[in-house]
Design goal:
The protein is α+β, with helices and mostly antiparallel strands and about 325 residues long. It has helices at about 45-50, 195-205, 275-280, 295-315; strands at about 10-15, 20-25, 60-65, 70-75, 75-85, 90, 95, 100-105, 110, 115-125, 155, 180-185, 205-210, 215-220, 230-235, 240-245, 250-255, 260-265, 265-270, 285-290. A seven-stranded mixed beta barrel has the order 12-19-16-17-14-13-20. Strands 7-6-9-4-1-11 form a six-stranded antiparallel sheet, with no helix packed on it. The radius of gyration is 20 Å and the shape is elongated. Mean pLDDT is about 90; it is low at about 320-330.
């Protein structure tokens, strides 16, 4: 969406919440220069939130973690909240999720106790006004790039009028669980692990440790043994790559992952399952299941088709089908 409105103040921050940042789909194309990608931990929730208010899929949203902010609305705006259920409220009443909502000046947006998941995304029709650094509005706190929301901040945007009341069917809304199966493709260093180590990876339950953040999720696992050490020549790290350092405890690398790494990678979480990781709480349980690249690509195409369906419905074009001819799901 092109911004056709002038910049205006959207929210006054009364409380910032635990961690509220501006994120889009990340700063791509710069890893070779040592620049971290960042971006949304749950790309599906961010893209859906944007589409429901008529934005481009890659527009920036507020990424809200665990404990949400308190915001006073300064200008009329259409928003959507997608992702973890952090008990969003407008003027003290429960607000719908996965649906576009019209806000009025002086409305009060708050969040309560987390019900499921960890991260939710608040989009606004027209987008947020935040500096674009290397093609992205995403926040990377360690380098001081982007916007970390703080108390008394004023958040600016464009507040283009959107259509309120557009949302997903109940059956299409993700359910965030504390025990998940993650589908993975084999990593590039499988030959560096013992048979017992590989069996431990695929046949045991892994616990999410308290050391789980935007950089990576450290797991507590039955040791995954190497044949000849854990070190490799450093190579590029993908979103969802599973490193196993010398202690045999895997790490799932996430949005703020380092650009390169020198530990063996046993697997990579497929793109459509990254949301499951991003929404896991410490103590959550993970099982890994191997799929081949063809299956991962098929699932990715299906996810893309679903996002296109949302886009077309939000535009009011119910006659459009995707390239593969799939029937479009209905949006309430």
């Amino acid at each position: 969406m092109e911004n056709k409105a002038e910049q205006q103040p959207l929210f006054k921050v009364i409380k910032p919440g635990l961690l509220t940042t501006i994120q889009d789909l990340g700063r791509t194309g710069f890893q070779k220069y040592g620049v971290v990608v960042s971006g949304a931990m749950d790309p599906f929730a961010l893209q859906t939130a944007n589409l429901l208010v008529g934005n481009r899929r890659d527009e920036a949203c507020l990424e809200i973690t665990m404990m949400g902010p308190e915001l006073v609305v300064l200008s009329e705006a259409t928003i959507a909240i997608c992702g973890a259920d952090l008990s969003p409220m407008i003027n003290g009443k429960a607000a719908p999720m996965w649906k576009s909502i019209q806000l009025k000046k002086d409305d009060y947006v708050t969040f309560g106790a987390p019900q499921s998941g960890v991260r939710t995304y608040l989009s606004v029709s027209g987008g947020f006004d935040s500096p674009v650094v290397m093609g992205s509005k995403s926040t990377y706190q360690k380098a001081g790039i982007g916007k970390h929301v703080e108390k008394k901040d004023t958040i600016f945007g464009y507040a283009v009028n959107g259509k309120a009341g557009v949302g997903l069917m109940h059956t299409e809304i993700p359910r965030y669980r504390k025990e998940v199966e993650l589908r993975v493709v084999k990593g590039p260093h499988m030959e560096r692990f013992t048979k017992e180590g590989i069996d431990n990876f695929f046949n045991n339950v892994h616990l999410v440790s308290p050391q789980a953040d935007r950089m990576g999720y450290r797991l507590k696992s039955k040791a995954i043994a190497h044949k000849n050490g854990a070190d490799i020549w450093s190579d590029a790290i993908p979103f969802g790559g599973v490193q196993v350092p010398v202690n045999g405890q895997p790490i799932i690398l996430m949005a703020d992952r380092q650009t390169t790494g020198g530990y063996t990678r046993i697997a990579t979480v497929i793109s459509v399952d990254l949301s499951k990781v991003a929404q896991l709480v410490p103590g959550g349980k993970i099982c890994f299941r191997e799929v081949d690249v063809e299956e991962a690509q098929k699932l990715y195409r299906e996810r893309e088709q679903f996002l296109l369906q949302i886009k077309y419905f939000c535009r009011g074009d119910s006659s459009v089908k995707g390239k593969n001819g799939y029937s479009k799901r209905r949006v309430d």
